[in-house]
Amino acid sequence: MNFIKLPKIELHCHLDGSVRAETIMDIARKEGIPLPFLDKEGLQKELVAPLECDSLVEYLKRFALPNLVMQSKESLRRITFELFEDAARENVKYLEVRFGPLLHILKGLDVEEVIESVIEGMREAESRYEIKGNIILSCLRSMSVESAFEVVKKGKKFLGKGVVAIDLCAAEEEGFCERFVEPIALAKEYGYRVTIHAGETGIGKNVLDAIELLGAERIGHGVFITECAEAYRKVKEKQVVLEMCPTSNVQTKAVQQYAEHPIYQFHQDGIKVTISTDNRTVSDTTMSKEFHLVTNEFHLSEEDCRQIYENSVEASFADQGTKEWCLAQYERRT
Known about the structure:
This protein is of the alpha/beta class and 334 residues long. The chain contains 15 helices and 8 strands. The protein has helices at residues 21-31, 40-47, 56-60, 64-68, 73-89, 111-128, 145-155, 181-190, 205-212, 229-238, 246-251, 263-268, 287-298, 302-315, 320-331, and strands at 8-14, 92-99, 132-140, 163-169, 193-198, 218-221, 241-244, 273-275. It has an 8-stranded parallel beta sheet with strand order 1-2-3-4-5-6-7-8, with helices on both faces. The protein starts with 7 loop residues before the first strand and ends with a helix.
């Protein structure tokens, strides 16, 4: 199977985890931002998390450096465009990119300018490549509940204009959902779709809470529903789609090795799974690589790949016309 030519849909990809090393160097030079390394090889060591990463917390340290160069409108536009360009070049047909707007206001941009810049980068890529996309706004669980309200309220004007959903991300603590019930409820009232990072670090009940308390339609990762029978049942019963990122899950030690990843077990048991990179740079991966790894490990058939593609289209927060276009891209593949 040619994984580059295979049409793909990506639903879980962080903007700040997918920045080219060369771009970081170029923006830093133009904007006078000091870097710990001035060569690509040294920079790559700072940006890419090893497979031997100790935990999610260690993995998340890789995001500090990219965010240094994501503080201007032009850099945000450029980095977003390049992410979509990289995805299009490996035949990703639709990409949902998520990012935390409040991480990019350190040098004077306001939240609206940040969101607008990211949308502009996406639109430029859509105009030049055969790819479509949408934006998910992430609220960081490490920040205050008030900050989540801020993102929800300031992102509202962009709904239907590139922004489609709200997300909660960053380090995962048990019971985090209770703190964010009100801002997520407001987001749903405004018309945001909801996807929540949960069950990434051994706390399966967080997935149950994300569904029951926050109304999550999709779950980012969800690996640890295997440790919570009620969460497993709820995900399967309600057909809540799991956005699974195999390489990232090995790095963060959600699983120790690819062979232990539950993605194929879930797929065989009727749980809807999708495949994503999580972070192209931090995980040193692509969609083609993720499909290759999963196929090699679990012997996915062509029908399995088709089902995952269709699951991904159906679970996307795209409009119906975009979904139909995506389905047609799979049918016309050569």
